Amino acid sequence: MGRILLYAALAIAAFFLLGSLIGFVFTIVKWLLIIGSITLIVWAAIRFTSELGRGPDRTR
User: Fold this and answer.
1) Does the residue 48 lie in any domain?
2) 29 domain residue, yes or no
């Protein structure tokens, strides 16, 4: 009986640890998406505004 309770307690502890790790991974992914989208918006704004200043005879 004691061994079964020990295994049950270990399983519950493992689920708590697994939940924390999965939460941490999703938090990292969320922040990477936020930083990536901000970077993409800034890059597009800089590219768009720099093309507005050039005339039709731009050289690239």
Assistant:
1) yes
2) yes
